[in-house]
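Morning!

This is the sequence you dropped in the shared folder:
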Amino acid sequence: MSRIVRASKYRHVFGTPAKTEQCYNGVKVSNTAWDTNFIAANPKYFAMMWESAGGGCVAVVNLDHAGKLSAGDMPLLTGHKAAVLDLDWNPFNDNLLASCSEDCNIFVWGIPEGGLKENMSTPLQTLQGHKRKVGTCNFHPCANNVLATSSADYTVKVWDIEKGDEMFSVGGATDLIMSCVWNKNGSNLATVSKDKKLRIIDPRTTTTVHEAACHQGSKGMRVNWMGKYDKILTTGFSKNSEREFFIWDPKNMSEPLAHNMIDSMSGCIMPFYDEESSMLYLAGKGDGNIRYYEIVDEKPYFYLLSEYKSSTSQRGCCMMPKRSLNVAGCEIARLLKVSQAKMVEPISFTVPRKSEIFQDDLYPNTFAGIPTETAEEWKNGANNAPDCSFSHEKGFVAPVHATEFKPVVKEAEKPKSEKELRDDNEQLRNRVSYLEAEVARRDARIKELEATH
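The structure's back. Tokens below.
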């Protein structure tokens, strides 16, 4: 019987780790227990949560400066007063970085051209409004200066980082929000929470559009919106503590379209999706494996291609923007792996091709890093698609767009005096007394009504 092999140009993709001299050695990654990637990258720099006394530091490393890092003299972003939990680069300005922390603050940092030369303690913008630790921050894919954050106060907030204003705040979660992501045009957000629910949120109407029961295990979950086919991926654990992923149709979330049990290892899965190739990369924390799949728009919705294996386990990972790839070597993706060996290791995923001419089937136009709407336009209902005009073909000149950032700095809330705290406490005690009396009155009324019936 003949065996039919599925045709795909990505069947033979393989991963290759960078040579030692092309890695970044001597990093001091944060020891926070929060489920995070620890690292974020753009075409110029990577930022990483840095271990320090008291936490709260971030290192920004120029990608051209591979080799041994002088950890003792590393200039750091030092503004946070507690551990940093997430990082994200502005997709339209390579020198703007957002960070969020256990101290309930979100900072927007301006990285000087060429990278940090000394410690920086004052951000360009401070966003305050969450009442508990802020676990995720995600820039809008189309609108300039729009940032979404989620917190342990069970809310998702959307900010205009230039004005420093909170635009929208959405509740609905009943437990800790673990992961949050925008869809392709930034009209909706998807979240997964510790209450084992997947939710689709419309931030501009502050409503939960859809909700579905998700992974039933007690460990960490992640969500990723696969925009090419408008599908949602969630990763998590089953009741038997097996790692798994679901693929969902956001228009009908009564049940997942597809389910795959990955293995029974204990580390959380970090998912990364490539729009152009429609490839999904799943990196497991605590192990050295990165599985990669091809996503399709019909059953079975995914095909396992292969697996990159390493003896060095990973603590975190991030995907480089497509504009950074080595086109001559047919590189289709590059991940930066934060290993347990105090090293950041680039891993290149390549399609083997013999021809040296430009492979246009591997490199369709990609995200150009140019906004298609302003924060105000998005707030008023615009849903423009991302600008995917960047071409890898030789001779293409990327248009220059303005990256000016003029923050309206808001005065940070000052600590209250002892008298103010005493007055607040007295008001709360009076409020509690009133509510207790109101409950007692209503209980008495209920008993009275029950007695008459």
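Headline: The longest strand covers residues 331-339.

More detail when I'm at my desk.
O.
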